[in-house]
Design a protein that fits this description.
The complex is a heterodimer. By secondary structure, chain A is α/β, with parallel strands linked by helices. Chain A has a single domain, classed as Rossmann fold. Helix content of chain A is 48%, strand content 10%. Chain A has helices spanning 57-70, 87-96, 101-125, 136-145, 150-156, 173-183, 201-219, 234-264; strands at 45-50, 75-78, 129-133, 165-170, 225-229. Chain A has a 5-stranded parallel β-sheet, with helices on both faces. In chain A, helix 2 runs antiparallel to helix 3 (101-125) and helix 4 packs across helix 7 (201-219). The N and C termini of chain A lie far apart (53 Å). Chain B has a single domain, classed as 3-Layer(aba) Sandwich (Rossmann fold). In chain B, 51% of the residues lie in helices and 11% in strands. A 5-stranded parallel β-sheet of chain B has the order 2-3-1-4-5, sandwiched between helices. Classes of the chains: A alpha/beta, B alpha/beta.
Chain lengths: 267, 232
């Protein structure tokens, strides 16, 4: 059985398959993929921005999209829980608070499968840069915190495509709390109130987010996260993202450019 | 790794499963079995595949728009199953009841593989399931099943006929092709998971006699009933 954790160790730096990512699986199915949907050799790139609630992912994605489009790249955005198929069901489940953790995990996986097959893979085949606001790592972290078997989770998401790049917006608890309170406040799910650690939303938020941050950190090596210090100002973070994305896209395009150059140079 | 489906459970109750393609007669047999076990004084709970309220809505929406892919079809059914397992199957097992399941994870193994989903992936997906004490597989030739369904003037359902695969525009033909492949998958499952095969081409009464004899080895049945060789 192939799973992300069974992936052959990659040699620290640059490798042939994953470009600058050091991730040999980049762009391919993590594990047992979708046999009826072969995905070799598509031109698009999948870039995921991960990070906990309120860390500033969507701001960064908007800026990144703008910049990519100015540079001439077609961009498609995708998120977590946005498929037509499952959105009403997941909203219903969240509002009624009747779901157990396993059903929850499976609903999100269904939603993701729908988006993968109908949005992400078609966009990749059409040559778009797909920016994913959260990816399977959010699901793995949330379910892991809730005690769902980690190996089972990894097998479940074996049908996911390993992104070409995963940026993990890393933040400390103090900064996170400040940002969340300054923007929209703490909500039921983001505070892990379903875990029933107590009635105090602040304490629950703190305890839950602490566990989530630990869960994300523990995945950093396994899934080749590029850890970005998200305590810094928005434009500093954006600079770092752009620098990395530019380097990756340029290296990915180099073979094609080179042959174009060769032709151009026959003057 | 979870391996509940290959390890015996230790709940005080019993879990009996019937499996087979549409038109195999398994639901009829399950009904008769429930009647008998109840009459024997057992507390019986029946659960059906794909019946939890939450997922029904999504499945229906997906079916209406013909929007389900083999993967989302598979995952939706697993979601439904997880919901029923935790709310409908495990509690009665803990209470020492007999749970009769009309279809179980094996249905997913057979159908999803037929639709082109990775076999091992589906097995791992369902590895949280409780292993049944007994699974009766009602094996029937495809012609018998089609004749039964047509005789009952059952309108063949879209997904049950595998119409989503686009193999044939004719529902009966599509059903034959799709369920024919499902039968092949079931045949592999018999050995892999130790299913008990019942010849489902025989009469209802004969089949039920076989069923009761097999079940009697797993539950307490009054002596009278066992030696009674009157037709049921």
């Amino acid at each position: 059985m192939t799973s992300p954790s069974d992936a052959p160790p990659t040699s620290g730096g640059v490798d042939a398959d994953g470009g600058a990512n050091g991730n040999g699986l980049a762009g391919r199915y993590y594990g047992r993929g979708i046999p009826y949907l072969p995905i070799e050799g598509y031109p698009g790139k999948l870039i995921a921005i991960e990070g906990t609630d309120g860390v500033g992912r969507s701001t960064q994605i908007q800026l990144l999209r703008e910049w990519l489009e100015v540079r001439g790249y077609g961009v498609v955005e995708t998120g977590w829980t946005r498929s037509m198929l499952m959105q009403p069901t997941i909203e219903l489940a969240k509002s009624s608070n009747t779901l157990n953790k396993l059903t929850f995990v499976l609903l999100y996986a269904t939603d993701f499968a729908d988006r993968l097959e109908k949005e992400i893979i078609p966009a990749l085949k059409a040559g778009f840069v797909v920016l994913s606001d959260r990816y399977i790592f959010t699901a793995l972290a949330r379910a892991g915190v809730r005690g769902v078997d980690r190996q089972w989770l990894r097998n479940l998401y074996g049908f996911a495509i390993a992104p070409h790049m995963v940026f993990y917006l890393n933040v400390d608890m103090k900064t996170l709390i400040g940002r969340v309170l300054a923007s929209r406040g703490m909500d039921f799910w983001e505070s892990g109130m379903d875990l029933k650690h107590g009635d105090d939303i602040y304490d629950s938020f703190r305890a839950y987010q602490n566990k989530l941050l630990r869960e994300y950190s523990s995945m950093a090596d396994e899934f080749h996260f590029r850890v970005v210090d998200a305590r810094r100002p928005v434009d500093r973070i954006q600079d770092e993202l752009r620098k990395n994305v530019a380097a990756f896209l340029e290296s990915a395009e180099r073979p094609a450019d080179r042959s174009a150059d060769t032709l151009a140079l026959q003057r | 790794m979870l391996n509940n489906l290959t390890q015996p459970h230790d709940y005080p109750g019993k879990l009996f499963v019937v499996e087979g393609i549409d038109g195999s007669g398994k639901t009829t047999q399950l009904g008769l079995l429930a009647k008998w076990l109840t009459a024997e004084g057992h507390r019986v709970f029946v659960t059906e595949w794909n019946s939890s309220a939450l997922v029904k809505a999504a499945t229906k929406a997906g079916k209406k728009k013909n929007a389900l892919t083999p993967m989302t079809f598979s995952l939706l059914h697993a979601t439904d199953f997880a919901d029923r397992l935790l709310y409908k199957i495990i509690p009665p097992l803990k209470a020492g009841m007999i749970v009769l399941a009309d279809r179980y994870a094996y249905t997913a193994f057979a159908r999803d593989a037929t639709r082109g989903v990775d076999r091992q992936w589906v097995r791992e997906l369902y590895s949280f399931a409780v292993r049944p004490d007994l699974t009766l597989y009602f094996r029937v030739p495809i012609d018998v099943s089609v004749d039964r369904l047509l005789a009952r003037r059952v309108k063949l359902k879209f997904y049950e006929s595998g119409m989503d695969m686009g193999w044939s525009a004719n529902p009966v033909e599509s059903f034959r092709m799709f369920q024919g492949k499902v039968l092949d998958e079931y045949d592999h499952l018999v050995d892999e998971f130790g299913l008990d095969v019942i010849d489902a081409a025989g009469s209802i009464t004969d089949q039920q006699r076989v069923v009761r004899n097999v079940i009697a080895q797993h539950v307490q049945i009054s002596q009278m009933e066992l030696t009674d060789d009157e037709p049921v």
